[in-house]
Write a structure and sequence with these properties.
two-stranded antiparallel sheet, mainly alpha, Four Helix Bundle (Hemerythrin (Met), subunit A), 6 helices, 2 strands
């Protein structure tokens, strides 16, 4: 009986250790992916000429700056949502408060990535595995954070059209 208990205890310790290592690798990978996304988004911001930041393909669409500032707003939203941190913007929206200039937009967007990356780095693997209710369903914070990543990818993809309308070749894809 003692051998079985020792084996079971050893097995449980090994499972816990493996789970912790996997979760830490996942946390490190998340940070690396957000850093890559920051660099990729910066390439988009740099590619757009100064006079293209106010470009709206149609009147009802966001401007290029609006797209990027919306992306930044949600970088704050998603990372605050999963971490429990207070949004440093309060109820302010960058999209509504930052002028559509290249310099102001780049600063606001890069600040949002710095905040998101710092927030993710401050989370433990256990926190990323915690669950939260979203639309009546349970999701890990890791999954919810991935939804935030998907959101910024979506808007960066939309920005490709804005660059093309301005006669600019979009940055080369940065998958890895």
């Amino acid at each position: 009986m003692m051998k079985k208990l020792t084996f079971l205890f050893t097995f449980m310790v090994m499972v816990f250790a493996c789970t912790t290592v996997y979760a830490q690798a996942t946390n490190d990978q998340i940070v690396a992916e957000w850093q890559r996304a920051k660099n990729y988004t910066k390439a988009y911001l740099d590619a757009m000429p100064d006079d293209g930041y106010g470009l709206k393909p149609t009147p009802e669409m966001r401007s290029f700056a609006g797209q990027m500032l919306h992306l930044a707003d949600d970088n704050y939203f998603f990372t605050c949502w999963v971490s429990g941190k207070t949004n440093p913007l309060g109820k302010t929206s960058l999209e509504k408060t930052v002028g559509p200039t290249k310099a102001a937009t780049i600063k606001a967007v890069m600040d949002s990535y710095d905040f998101a990356i710092g927030t993710i780095q401050g989370m433990t693997p256990a926190q990323l595995q915690e669950t939260m209710k979203v639309s009546g369903k349970e999701f890990s914070k890791f999954i919810v954070l991935n939804k935030g990543f998907e959101h910024q990818t979506h808007h960066r993809g939309q920005a490709t059209v804005y660059l093309r309308l301005k006669g600019v070749t979009p940055p080369q894809e940065m998958l890895f």
